[in-house]
Design a protein that fits this description.
By secondary structure, the protein is of the alpha/beta class. The protein folds into 2 domains: 2-165, Rossmann fold (3-Layer(aba) Sandwich); 168-330, Dehydroquinate synthase-like, alpha domain (Up-down Bundle). The chain contains 12 helices and 11 strands. The strands form 3 sheets. It has a 7-stranded mixed β-sheet with strand order 1-2-9-6-5-3-4, with helices on both faces. A two-stranded antiparallel ribbon has the order 7-8. Helix 4 (124-130) packs parallel to helix 5 (168-185) and helix 5 (168-185) crosses helix 7. The longest helix is centred in the middle third of the chain and has 18 residues, at 168-185. The chain is globular, with a radius of gyration of 19 Å. The model has no long low-confidence stretch (mean pLDDT 96). The structure holds nicotinamide-adenine-dinucleotide. Nicotinamide-adenine-dinucleotide binds at residues 39, 41-43, 64-66, 69, 96-100, 102, 122-123, 125-126, 129-130, 133, 135, 144-145, 162, 165-166, 170, 173.
Length: 333
Amino acid sequence: MTVTVNLGERSYDITIEKGALSHIGSYIPQGGKTLVVTDDGVPEKYVQAVSAKAEGGVTVTLPQGEASKNFENYKMLCEVMLRHDFTRSDKVIAVGGGVVGDLAGFAASTYMRGIDFYNVPTTLLSQVDSSVGGKTAIDLCGIKNIIGTFYQPKAVIINPDVLKTLDRRQYACGMAETLKMAATSSGELFEMIEGGIDERNIEEMIARAVGIKADVVSKDEKEAGLRKILNFGHTIGHGIESLGELYHGECVALGMLCMCGEKVYPRLEKVIKSLGIPTKIKADRDKIISAVRHDKKMQGETINAVFVDSIGSFEIRKTTTDELSERLSKILI
Ligand SMILES: NC(=O)c1ccc[n+]([C@@H]2O[C@H](COP(=O)([O-])OP(=O)(O)OC[C@H]3O[C@@H](n4cnc5c(N)ncnc54)[C@H](O)[C@@H]3O)[C@@H](O)[C@H]2O)c1
């Protein structure tokens, strides 16, 4: 299956195909130098499938985890390209999750003012979300994604088979981001997830989620309006994440429960539970709200947030920290 992100001359295809890694050369042009960026949590066979097709390629393997998305690694990747005489006709390929994709994409976007970037996402989150749309980033001084660019890849190649090695919690986090897209934009996708995802329909589920994100990005590349719907569940989610106990996707799932209407809540809760993500937590309400107050998107005491009162539709409206605090009651024990 192929989904196209329509952005004029920066348009690109996202291929979703079981077995795509075995003939990756048909999606990524041969010739020129290649920097393959990955991390040490990505099973080596996936990286080898890509680097074997990159003649004269250089592979950099970073330590796994968010901490790798830093300035030093960005500098190191640029230095590697410089040492190997990379020019504008060469390319960078990311093989990994969102950490590798964001960092490698940022390096590709700035080296010589931009060289070709290809993404081979290997976590569910990166397949349905971070590899699509061209946001690249690194963290600085403990602030996530504070430095980055909008830089579209030349192609994204998604092989759902690689998810077999992903651990359950990471998989659930990717499903939470998929639910986010379904809840705001597609009742059909939501029903499909409610019905259960397995080997037989995972490819279609990914393609549908990617289709939603591609459509949003094609209409609003730089988050002037519609792209904000991708933040459903993220305002309160970020507040919960700041407590440092749960993964990002788990916090987004809890955040969505706070921001949905009465009819949506039981459906969302049931699916989230089935993923093994907690739907109630014991946490300090004031600490969560205090973190929300520091959200980059706050405007005084108000913030634009996404609400879902009916599956497949959304509303973006201003809310206050008082309202968010009240809504937190839905998930606090
Ligand atoms: N650019 C965007 O639009 C965007 C959107 C959402 C999130 N993000 C970013 O994405 C990052 C999170 O991405 P993530 O959730 O993919 O985390 P991640 O990149 O840290 O990957 C999670 C873990 O899974 C391992 N892994 C990767 N593929 C595997 C596989 N197939 N089998 C087994 N293990 C595998 C990795 O080594 C890592 O330990 C964050 O930095 C976030 O800011 C970016």
